[in-house]
Structure formats: C-alpha cells, structure tokens
Amino acid sequence: MADRRKAHGYNNGERMMYWNDFEQNLQVEQTVFDLTRQSLASIAQSSLGDEKFHCFAFNVGAADGSIMLSLATQADRREGKLYPPEWDYEVVESDVPEIASLWRAGYAAVETAYAQQVEDFGDDFDALDAFEEGFLQSLRRVMVRLEQSNAFAVIGADDGLWTLVTQIDADTDEEERLLDAVRRGEDCSG
Fold first, then answer.
1. Please, which pLDDT band fits residue 84 given cuts at 50, 70 and 90?
2. pLDDT tens for each residue of 103-132
3. Helix 28-45 and helix 125-148: axis angle, to 10°?
4. Could you tell me how far CA 4 lies from the centroid of its own chain?
5. Is 70 a domain residue?
6. Could you tell me the pTM of the whole model?
7. Does 190 fall in a domain?
8. Is residue 188 part of a domain?
9. How far, in Å, CA of 20 to CA of 29, rounded?
10. How confident is the model at residue 109, as a pLDDT?
11. What is the largest CA-CA distance in the chain?
C-alpha cells in the first residue's frame, strides 16, 4: 500500500497532492461554478422562477463524484436541521430538465475521470479518502465563491440563504463547520 500511495504522490504531508493535480487538469472548481451559475439561470427561467428559496445544497456522492443540486422553499429547514431529503426540490434536475442536460454535457468528463481514478485507487483507502475529501473541499470553495459573487440573487434567494455541501449519511454539523472554515479563509484539507 505504501508503494501505491507514493506512486500517487501521497505521504503524510502531501495527502491532497493527487486531488490538486486532478482538479487543475480538469478545472473541476471552475466547471462546477460555471454549471451552477447556468443552472441557477435555468431555474430562474423555469416554472420555479417565482419560488422564494431559503436553502441551496450541493448534494454530493463523493464515492463517484456526482453532484445534485437541492433547493428548499421552506424557511424552517435550517432551524429544524432538515437536510435535502426533506427539501421540496431534493434533485432540482428532475424539475428543470435543462439542468440535467447541461450537467450531462458539461460534467461528464469529470465524472468519467473521477470514476477511473477511484477504480485506480483499488484497496488504497487512505488515498481514496484523501481524494474524496479533496473533492468535497473543492465544492466548499465553489460554494463560497458562489455566495461571494451573489450568484443566488438570480433565483430570488432569501438574504439568509442556507447553503450546504452535503452527502448521504454525513455528519452534517461537521460539514457546516468545514464550509464555515472555508468562508473564514481557513484550509481544512490537510
């Protein structure tokens, strides 16, 4: 296992090295940022355009690199600690088919390369965990960039919009803490 980690650039001090290379080669963060902005514009032009949104999430499958966009119109989701499975638009791509087409065309190369990389890691779970955490950290950076660029204004988002980067069965309090750390400019990837 140590030889395999070394081949992928992993050691105690460089666990995120391979994700960084992957992200830079495929421009994952820029791709997700652009696709999300385009998706938000599609939502604004769709039958959902008159909705008032209080929550937005990247609902993620870190095991396969998948990203679903989740939205909620209910203002009580945050207070009740209710996450995307309890949101009215858990998979907004189902309600706005243009978004599904957009992501299929613009994100397929990333998903294909991600799946290949996961397969290449085989039983090297340390390397796989580091790669998946790198993916999540990139999505946190994208979320903060979306917030800072006022990207959610196009969908009439509430001023107190609750944003998340979450995945199934994750520690949601920890996920919120990690996103807040990125907002503060702290690097949580090491």
1. low
2. 999 999 999 999 999 998 989 999 999 999
3. 50
4. 27
5. yes
6. 0.86
7. no
8. no
9. 11
10. 95
11. 55
